[in-house]
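hi! just following up on the protien thing from before. the input was this:
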Amino acid sequence: MRTVDFSPLFRSAIGFDRLFDLAEAAQRAGEETYPPYNIERLDENRFLISVALAGFSPDEVVLTVEQNVLTLEGHKSEKEGKTFLHRGISARHFKRQFTLADHVEVKGASFENGLLVIDLQREIPEAMKPRRIAINGAVPSNVAQIESKAA
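and the predicted 3d structure came back as:
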């Protein structure tokens, strides 16, 4: 049995740490790998998930988000009266789930050329961003918001 070590990916992944845990658990459980997908990092807080859905139309795919879980389901409508000599394009139903990190939101999704592209954005609330606290006796001009990138 072939195993994959995802630990090097934890260092460079922002917002998808738990996703790698799920991928590793899925590999151990022998879960099927359909439909194939890519996760692309555009910058520190933006990600794209591209899912290959050849043969599906947008109305046969449902995308939902609930409590940091992004769920993608596909239900292929079968047309009666078709006789296949060879059937290589999958027409099976599927359900794939992605666990999103805290403060990662789905900004949109588009379906083009057989690819479903899901745009994700990490937005840290102002209350959670680091800020400098004034210390009694300090000169007031030293008090300012710290400009930093969220981890």
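The radius of gyration is 21 Å.
The domain at 7-142 is CATH 2.60.40.790 (Immunoglobulin-like).
cheers
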